[in-house]
Amino acid sequence: MLLQHKNAIIYGAGGSIGGAVARAFAKGGAKVFLGGRTLSSLQTVANDINNAGGKAETVIVDALNEESVNKNVEAIVNKEGSIDISFNAINVEDKQGITLAEMSLEDFFRPISIAMQSQFITTQTASRYMLNQGSGVILSITATPAAKAYPLTGGFGPTCSAIEGFSRNLAAELGSKGIRVVCIRSAGSPDSEVFKKAMAKKVKLAQEEIVDIAKDTMLNRLPLMAEIANVAVFLVSDLASGMTGTSVNVTCGTTID
């Protein structure tokens, strides 16, 4: 098992991607701490993992609150002895479908603010303990607008770019201390709830819209959540020990490196 004896905290674990990655981490042998603000959605993921023979605990935590994050990570380290993986997949509450010329400052800036505040708080907290250990992996996730311009994405595109830039800078600071910082760039998973809701809002025939987006990829399809989760397991495992400061392209060829 690639992640045996590892302790991982996943912020936004009650969401589609967060939950999928949490399940994959647990299947890989990690003990996962499912972080979020809504117990019911976290418990659903925890039940799936524990019923499958994995190890999962729920953690009520606000990734935008420094005290909340510090308190919960400290409790995990005191109990388990380490924090080996930190993954932030919280909802950034972006608003799309409006031109930048018509969008309000509040709607544009909201996802940037949420993403960068939560990324800073969660990674800073994890890195403090990882520095003491001399090891650890910090993982984030973005989407295709980080590397390709799309109209009507509002503040989401700049948000993705900011996360990837922050990840690179953090990697440069922590690499010599044995800590890796990596990012996954997805094209959006058609089997995720977020994607389904977004498509339902954009067009009457959501399936046709999905087909059009898929045509923009080299594989003529979009990555499923399981594919994102499998890459996440690889990236935080020792098999990827030589990788840091990079965004791994899992866009099915939407963006080109």
Q: What would you say this structure looks like, in words?
A:
There is one protein chain. The protein is an alpha/beta fold and 257 residues long. It has a single domain (7-189, 224-250), classed as Rossmann fold (3-Layer(aba) Sandwich). Helices cover 46% and strands 16% of the residues. The protein is built from 8 helices and 7 strands. It has a 7-stranded parallel sheet with strand order 3-2-1-4-5-6-7, sandwiched between helices. Helix 1 (16-27) packs across helix 8 (225-236), helix 3 packs parallel to helix 4 (105-133) and helix 4 (105-133) runs parallel beside helix 5 (156-174). It is globular and about 50 Å long. The two termini are 30 Å apart. Residues 203-208 have low confidence and may be disordered.
